[in-house]
Amino acid sequence: MASNNFIDYVKICCRSGRGGAGSAHMFRSKGRPLGGPDGGDGGRGGHIILRGNKQLWTLLHLQYKKHVIAGHGVPGSGGLCTGAEGDDVILDVPLGTIARDAETGEIRAEITEDGQEIILTPGGRGGWGNDHFKSATNQAPTYAQPGEPGQEVWNVLELKLLADVGLVGFPNAGKSTLLSVVSAATPKIADYAFTTLVPNLGVVGYRDYQSFVMADIPGIIEGAAEGKGLGLRFLKHIERNATLLFMIAADSPDIAAEYQVLLSELEQFNPDLLDKRRVLAITKADMLDEELEAEIEATLPADVPHVFISSITQKNIQQLKDLLWQQIQDARREDPKPLRHSIWAQKRADDDADEDEFDDEEVSEDQLD
């Protein structure tokens, strides 16, 4: 995907519709001068809804859509006619999109499945018509409930790509080359640092027609947490990965030291990343003979599985796939379901539980329809 088309952060203002007011209409017809109240309820205000779409990979289509406004509910009318609901606005977003409150940073929704819909900003409920307030002692109420107001909230939509394996390494470690070899992805490859400027995804074919997704992010360097290089902007895209593949070139002066630097930068970004499964790949192994491999292997950390690979000669590529596949399956057994958040789902449940309190709210004569 082109770097100028990859947008993983947008800020939008979401304004839901207000609920329609209830009607205080009185029934009148020939022969029934005292027909009584027959005011209908107001319609619900429109929602702002997020919907997962697996065909999208970026938030580019929302980059210049700063204000999203849903329709208002229509007031009720006589004859117990309920007003029409306001038009909902559905925002299609890529899988892995998180919605946060722009002021507090609180997570409001998270989209992880195709077709999944979450109400980001709920519309106001419609008011009750005067028919609901009639009783033996109040047979002709002349008032009705007003509709609930809509909500206006600034939200941040942030995309975190969903992948099974995330590639972590210094620039020119061979990450993009590996992705191009094991998948049909065509990332930019060159002999200078920071060739990769945006994340790239590839589907890696495995045995028996199975597959997994691999994500390549721009290389990080020592001091990235302080803003050096491209900083840690794109590390959020590996927060959801089941396994992290650390890639260090065989011609590195100190492979163990580079590995520790990468771990340190990840820890500064998010300490939880260190809890993920890890695999260490020594790239450009076609430059090594057996004696050099044995010498390097003696210096590698013992607690991380490792493999010497070469994307050019295909050395140990299948062995690497087998190792990654096993790590992915183990991670899925530990955590079979992706994390989801939706505080609005809980809010609507709380609203429903308190519906009687809203319905029985005392309405004064000052709130006439």
TrEMBL record:
Transmembrane segments: none
SUPFAM superfamilies (UniProt xref): Obg GTP-binding protein N-terminal domain (SSF82051), P-loop containing nucleoside triphosphate hydrolases (SSF52540)
First-listed, main subcellular location of the protein, grouped into a coarse class: cytoplasm
Cofactor(s), names only, from the UniProt record: Mg(2+)
EC id: 3.6.5.-
Subcellular location: Cytoplasm
Start-end of Acidic residues biased regions: 351-369
Any one Pfam family match given in the protein's UniProt record, by short name: GTP1_OBG
Gene3D superfamilies found in the cross-reference section: GTP1/OBG domain (2.70.210.12), P-loop containing nucleotide triphosphate hydrolases (3.40.50.300)
Annotated binding of Mg(2+), by residue: S176, T196
This protein's record includes keyword Cytoplasm: yes
Keyword DNA-binding (UniProt): no
Top EC category: hydrolase
Quaternary state and interactors: Monomer.
Similarity section: Belongs to the TRAFAC class OBG-HflX-like GTPase superfamily. OBG GTPase family.
Protein name stated in the entry: GTPase Obg
UniProt organism field: Hymenobacter busanensis
Gene: obgE
